[in-house]
């Protein structure tokens, strides 16, 4: 990967002093990712260009990290790191031009402090957000930005553009600032997984952003992306299996929400989906990484409240949450002593790990802990652990099941477990017209979303087949035209069966 | 001579010092004897710490319980002189449905005291023995009422000294009989139909010329026109030793009536009583004695076959208790009643996971159906249905229709075994936790709990309906790494490997670069329903090697494939088939992957490297020494172009299914045959019958490994395939090779490997040659055995959960991390 820095400040060769690299020498610097070479393709009075060429050896790169690293996959070997201006280049740049980046230059101190006419070129800059984002990030810093999208494959024009742009920045900027801009913004634009996040990364950002980041209009996005995702739980068998299924890990992650990959039917899919005006106003990059439990005003909060209220009205004292995800409802049930026995089942081991942590299972008092059973299971297998509860809750679960497998779910829950009550909530697709920016379904893992009529028909059939009666209730604002955002079916087993 | 049942709880009774431990050691295996002293030691470090007695007995009962549940004879060495102690053990035996025998060691008090005195650790005085002796005396008068099957009393030292213990087989244990059997459903007095059925089965009087044995599932009597005639026929056969008969609930009730007990004469009992009333008293007595002696069930053919009137769950096989008999005669009910006022039967067969086939009757059905290796043969002959027999081991049903409706049913004949039966329903315990999957292909495969957990998520979230998911292909390893300059893989190593394993001939098949696809196709929706239990009208599935549907809507592809495969129905004599295929082009399924990963890398390289080359050229022009770096960067630039060409070869635009091609290369299974075991020549020639624009044939050649010329020819063929840009070839033993021989190895082409190892892999071959193949190869072998096992179970008509088990295990093994480039 290549970075060139040119200046036309005369004498242009003073660039060598500023960078602490002699224009007539070729210098090599060992890097953990490979080898960096600094050389000058041109070095004249009028114009001088320094080039930093980082040779990344993917084989060495792969071997330097263990199987436990998050990207133990094929993409570890076939990736763009040797060509694209990623965080590896930022790291090399920071190292090779350390003194220059600090703004120190014993030979030309005044030059180091002076804005200079500079031109910076990056032929292949991975840029999530496209040329537009590159402009939004660099222009406020005084750069004139030329950013051209690179086509994916000229042999297949229908494939469109790649995620790379050919970037040229021109402007009159202090060299140290220019280097710091690159150091921070290259990984931000790349926004690939950051494999080397250490606790001191926050300090590094603060130092490198001194004097410019605080006032940058996109500072929130920059900070969040720079610090990246915390991949503490990311290396999972699921990620590997997803890849075996001809799918990259990325494909598993929800496209919009930026949170650890998980979890449907486990998760709270709509936490990040357009859900009321508040969320729609959020930047296109979605909510902060830290998933905070949705407040009572959010749809998921209302849904949980509706489920809890219904369970109380039904007089249920033992409840199992099927597809409990990260345990929000389970936690709420445990907080109410009337629920003497609480079960939580999910198919995702990772969701259960997170749930256990969020519920502080290790430190839970014995009396409370004894009320709770948390286990892995799947709704397509009969399971005697599901029996013996007053009520079962399927909250935003059925839409994560392929329609042909719904019959199995039905038999497992209504035919085998047969609790007295079953609560089912699912999106009402009619309501989606209120989500202005939504294309498709509300969550990438949704296999379907139903109209009110479709849900009512399914509920009636299930109830009839298994000796239940069903009442349908709205959850959230009940729009006179299109109904509520969420629909709930409350099934109750006939007395005699 | 003491005789105890082979499976029983033997309770020793005697005072301290009566010689129980010595007796137990002499007559039983050390592991069979559980002593209270030993348990006391385990829970207190002191065998004589009386305060630990409650904990010691808790442990003793636990150990005894575990042993009994596993079907092991167990001897309890404790004083057991009090009723309460014995009662607890008898209850334990009953809970596990085994019989209990007591052996009382009644030795003189002074002997016991003397022996204790001689043992320093028993420093309690004679008072203990005297008290125990008093308890024993009191017990002996009524111990026979405790509930033991037998109480063996050894009175005096000589009796104890000279006793010997023998074992008696359970009445239900006829495992030595291997058949063949003709198992006959509920007759209910339909003599004419029974005679006709026996004739159809080839019986001549009470004998079968081929020495077959008849097994009656009970309910010979009641309702029908000639109960005495049926009884006479069956009794003659049983007495001649050519038939067995288990008790039905109707025999049970009839015996009680004949014994003069007051029973309600409903459900056709009156007919039997009237008909028997017209018989001479000797016959009545013979029939009564015969029916009275009928036992609850039989275990036959080395335990592979169980016959009971109303069926029997696995934990009851070979056991004896009131509830075993009750289950066998009446089945289990849910405690609810249906709209006709009849008890709702608990569908025990749905949950049945035993290896033994269970054949039964009791519940009239229109048509017998297999449910988890169980089958109900009651086809309601007396209600105007049919009388049905199962030929074992042939698994063949033979039936004759009823001559008329002999008796009006209370309710119409139901579907098989009741209402909401779901034979394809899988249970979480079929897959959960650490498991060992037995295969008949040389290996028992262990599945780790965490891998099963990962597979459960993938299986339930992404896989196709498990009823279609009858197979997952094994992973395939490359050959040992080539040392040839410029090559990582080469056919030479593959040939050497198979030759060393004793394989004489291999087949080399062109490796299509696409997406692996397993296709399961049924000729009609009816076949799909009958054979796979799929009732949604679909006629097949096409899925990836991790069980995901190949396309969001598989319907059209299944449809087209089914049409293309039409010649196979007649050729294979089967209404369904499972095929192993590759689906082309690669971009059809993997388009997103190609664009996001491969094309992206190509795009970045295409723009970055030429610019780096020109910067270096400019520097070189200035006289700087960048020679090495320049030539290296030029080479990388051309590698990147080769990389781009490598993936682009496998991409072509498709519009729906237009442009999609399927290359089947193996017929996995069809009705009655796990064809995956056939030689590859058969597969290739059979698949050559397919003639459709959808189908791509697999180019191949056979190689005699003992011929250098043959090998060289194949190498040249591989060179030409890969020079054209082909992925490479798969080398497989031409015929199934048992043992630890790889089912196939893939020899991939030099250019193709750029997609796998990166554009510049040719620059670092030395490093890459240090790759580790062991794990991949071991996984390939295990997954291959599991796949064959699944196909064999499928073709033999085993229940859904049995097919699912090895398929799930393949997915679980695949969740193990292994170098993805291999």
UniProtKB/TrEMBL annotation, chain A:
It is an enzyme of class 2 (transferase). Its cofactor is Mg(2+). Its EC number is 2.1.1.386. Residues 248-303 are annotated as: Disordered. Belongs to the methyltransferase superfamily. HEN1 family. Keywords: Magnesium, Metal-binding, Methyltransferase, RNA-binding, RNA-mediated gene silencing, S-adenosyl-L-methionine, Transferase. Residues 320-413 form the Methyltransferase type domain. This is Small RNA 2'-O-methyltransferase. One of its GO terms (biological process) is regulatory ncRNA-mediated gene silencing. The keyword Cytoplasm does not apply. Residues 1-242 form the Hen1 N-terminal domain. It comes from the Bacteria. One of its GO terms (molecular function) is metal ion binding. It holds the Pfam family Hen1_L. Residues 268-282 have a biased composition (Acidic residues). It catalyses: small RNA 3'-end nucleotide + S-adenosyl-L-methionine = small RNA 3'-end 2'-O-methylnucleotide + S-adenosyl-L-homocysteine + H(+).
From TrEMBL, chain B:
This is Polynucleotide kinase-phosphatase. Residues 180-364 form the Calcineurin-like phosphoesterase domain. One of its GO terms (molecular function) is kinase activity. GO terms for cellular component: cytoplasm. Keywords: Kinase, Transferase. Residues 454-817 form the Polynucleotide kinase-phosphatase ligase domain. The keyword Transferase applies. It comes from Nonomuraea montanisoli.
């Amino acid at each position: 990967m290549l970075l060139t820095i040119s200046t036309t400040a005369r004498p242009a060769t003073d660039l060598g002093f500023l960078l602490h690299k002699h224009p007539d020498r070729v210098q090599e610097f060992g890097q953990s990712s490979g080898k960096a070479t600094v050389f000058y393709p041109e070095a004249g009075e009028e114009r001088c260009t320094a080039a930093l060429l980082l040779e990344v050896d993917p084989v060495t790169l792969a071997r330097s990290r263990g199987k436990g690293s998050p990207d133990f996959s094929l993409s570890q070997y076939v990736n763009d790191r040797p060509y694209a201006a990623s965080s590896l280049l930022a790291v090399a740049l920071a190292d090779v031009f350390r003194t220059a980046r600090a703004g120190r230059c014993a030979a030309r101190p005044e030059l180091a402090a002076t804005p200079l006419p500079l031109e910076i070129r990056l032929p292949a800059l991975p840029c999530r957000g496209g040329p537009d984002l590159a402009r939004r990030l660099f222009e406020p810093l005084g750069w004139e930005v030329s950013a051209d999208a690179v086509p994916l494959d000229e042999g297949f024009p229908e494939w469109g553009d790649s995620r790379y742009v050919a970037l040229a920045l021109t402007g009159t900027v202090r060299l140290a600032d220019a280097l710091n801009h690159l150091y921070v913004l290259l990984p931000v634009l790349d926004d690939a997984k950051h494999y080397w996040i250490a606790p001191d990364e926050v300090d590094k950002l603060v130092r490198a952003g001194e004097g410019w980041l605080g006032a940058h209009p996109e500072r929130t996005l920059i900070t969040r992306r720079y610090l990246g995702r915390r991949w503490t739980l990311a290396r999972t068998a699921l990620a590997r299996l997803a890849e075996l299924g001809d799918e990259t890990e990325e494909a598993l992650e929800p496209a919009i929400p930026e949170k650890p990959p998980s979890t449907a039917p486990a998760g709270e899919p709509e936490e990040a989906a357009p859900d009321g005006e508040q969320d729609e106003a959020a930047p296109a990059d979605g909510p902060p990484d830290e998933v905070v439990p949705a407040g009572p005003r959010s749809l998921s909060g209302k849904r949980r409240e509706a489920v809890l209220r219904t369970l109380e009205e039904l007089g249920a004292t033992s409840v199992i949450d099927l597809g409990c995800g990260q345990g929000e409802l389970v936690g709420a049930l445990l907080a109410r002593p009337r629920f003497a026995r609480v079960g939580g089942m999910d198919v995702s081991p990772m969701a259960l790990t997170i749930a256990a942590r969020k519920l502080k299972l290790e430190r839970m008092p014995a009396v409370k802990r004894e009320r709770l059973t948390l286990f892995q299971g799947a709704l397509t297998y009969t399971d005697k652990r599901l029996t013996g509860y007053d009520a079962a809750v399927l909250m935003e679960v059925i839409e994560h099941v392929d329609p042909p497998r719904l019959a199995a779910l039905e038999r497992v829950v209504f035919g085998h477990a047969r609790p007295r009550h079953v609560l089912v909530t699912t999106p009402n697709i009619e309501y989606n017209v209120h989500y202005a920016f939504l294309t498709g379904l509300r969550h990438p893992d949704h296999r379907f979303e139903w109209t009110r009529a479709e849900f009512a028909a399914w509920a009636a059939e299930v109830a009839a087949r298994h000796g239940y009666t069903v009442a349908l209730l709205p959850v959230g604002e009940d729009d006179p035209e299109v109904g509520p955002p969420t629909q709930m079916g409350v099934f109750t087993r006939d007395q005699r069966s | 001579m003491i005789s105890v049942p082979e499976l029983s709880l033997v309770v020793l009774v005697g005072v301290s010092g009566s010689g129980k431990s010595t007796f137990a050691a002499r007559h039983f295996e050390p592991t069979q004897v559980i002593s209270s002293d030993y348990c006391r030691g385990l829970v207190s470090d002191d065998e004589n710490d009386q305060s630990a007695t409650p904990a010691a007995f808790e442990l003793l009962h636990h150990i005894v319980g575990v042993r009994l549940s596993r079907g092991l004879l167990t001897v309890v060495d404790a004083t057991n002189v009090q009723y309460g102690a014995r009662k607890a053990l008898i209850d334990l035996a009953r809970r596990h449905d085994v019989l209990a025998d007591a052996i009382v060691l009644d030795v003189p008090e002074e002997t016991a005291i003397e022996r204790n005195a001689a043992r320093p650790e028993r420093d309690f005085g004679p008072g203990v023995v005297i008290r125990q002796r008093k308890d024993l005396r009191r017990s002996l008068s009524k111990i026979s009422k405790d509930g033991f099957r037998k109480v063996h009393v050894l009175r005096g030292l000589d009796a104890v000294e000279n006793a010997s213990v023998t074992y008696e087989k359970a009445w239900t244990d006829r495992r030595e009989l291997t058949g063949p059997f003709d198992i006959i459903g509920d007759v209910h007095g339909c003599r004419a139909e029974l005679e006709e059925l026996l004739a159809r089965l080839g019986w001549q009087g009470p004998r079968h010329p081929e020495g077959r044995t008849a097994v009656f599932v009970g309910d010979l009597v009641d309702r029908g026109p000639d109960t005495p005639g049926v009884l006479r026929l069956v009794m003659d056969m049983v007495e001649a030793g050519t038939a067995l008969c288990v008790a039905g609930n109707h025999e049970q009730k009839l015996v009680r009536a004949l014994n003069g007990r007051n029973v309600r004469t409903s459900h056709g009992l009156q007919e039997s009583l009237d008909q028997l009333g017209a018989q001479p008293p000797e016959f009545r007595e013979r029939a009564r004695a015969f029916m009275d002696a009928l036992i609850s069930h039989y275990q036959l053919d080395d335990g592979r076959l169980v016959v009971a009137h109303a069926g029997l769950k696995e934990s009851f096989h070979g056991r004896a208790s009131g509830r075993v008999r009750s289950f066998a005669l009446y089945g289990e009910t849910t405690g609810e009643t249906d709209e006709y006022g009849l008890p709702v039967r608990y569908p025990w067969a749905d949950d049945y996971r035993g290896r033994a086939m269970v054949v039964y009757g009791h519940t009239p059905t229109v048509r017998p159906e297999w449910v988890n290796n169980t089958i109900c043969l009651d086809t309601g002959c007396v209600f105007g249905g049919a009388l049905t027999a199962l030929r074992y081991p042939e698994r063949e049903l033979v039936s004759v229709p009823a001559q008329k409706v002999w008796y009006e049913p209370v309710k119409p004949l139901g579907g098989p075994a009741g209402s909401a039966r779901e034979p394809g329903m899988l249970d979480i315990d079929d897959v959960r936790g650490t498991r060992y999957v037995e295969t008949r292909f040389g290996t028992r495969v262990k599945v780790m709990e965490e891998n099963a957990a990962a597979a459960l998520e993938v299986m339930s979230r992404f896989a196709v309906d498990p009823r279609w998911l009858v197979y997952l292909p094994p992973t395939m390893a490359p050959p040992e790494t080539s040392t040839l300059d410029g090559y990582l893989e080469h056919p030479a190593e593959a040939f050497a490997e198979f030759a060393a394993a004793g394989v004489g001939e291999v087949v080399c098949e062109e490796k299509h670069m696409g997406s692996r696809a397993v296709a399961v196709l049924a000729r009609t929706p009816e076949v799909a329903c009958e054979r796979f239990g799929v009732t949604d009208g679909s006629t097949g599935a096409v899925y990836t090697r991790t069980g995901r549907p190949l396309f969001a809507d598989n319907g059209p592809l299944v449809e087209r494939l089914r049409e293309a495969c039409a010649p196979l129905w007649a050729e294979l004599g089967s209404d369904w088939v499972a095929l192993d295929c590759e689906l082309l082009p690669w971009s059809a399924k993997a388009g997103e992957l190609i664009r996001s990963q491969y094309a992206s890398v190509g795009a970045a390289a295409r723009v970055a490297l030429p610019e780096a080359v020109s910067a270096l050229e400019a520097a070189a022009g200035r006289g700087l020494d960048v020679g090495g770096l320049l030539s290296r960067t030029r080479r990388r630039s051309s590698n990147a172009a080769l990389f781009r060409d490598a993936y682009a070869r496998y991409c072509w635009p498709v519009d729906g299914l237009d442009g999609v091609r399927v290359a089947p290369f193996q017929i996995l299974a069809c009705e009655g045959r796990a064809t995956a075991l056939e030689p590859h020549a058969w597969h290739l020639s059979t698949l050559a019958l397919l003639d459709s624009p959808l189908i791509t044939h697999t180019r191949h050649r056979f190689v005699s490994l003992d011929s250098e010329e043959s090998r060289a020819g194949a190498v040249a063929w591989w060179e030409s395939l890969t020079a054209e840009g082909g992925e490479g070839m798969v080398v497989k033993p031409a015929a199934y090779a048992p043992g630890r021989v790889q089912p196939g190895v893939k020899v991939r082409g030099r250019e193709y490997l750029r997609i796998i190892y990166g554009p510049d892999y040719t620059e670092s071959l030395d490093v890459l040659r240090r790759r580790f193949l062991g794990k991949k190869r071991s996984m390939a072998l295990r997954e291959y055995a599991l796949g064959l096992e699944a196909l064999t179970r499928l073709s033999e008509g085993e229940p859904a959960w049995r097919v699912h088990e090895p398929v799930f295990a393949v997915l679980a093994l695949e969740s193990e991390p292994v170098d993805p480039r291999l």
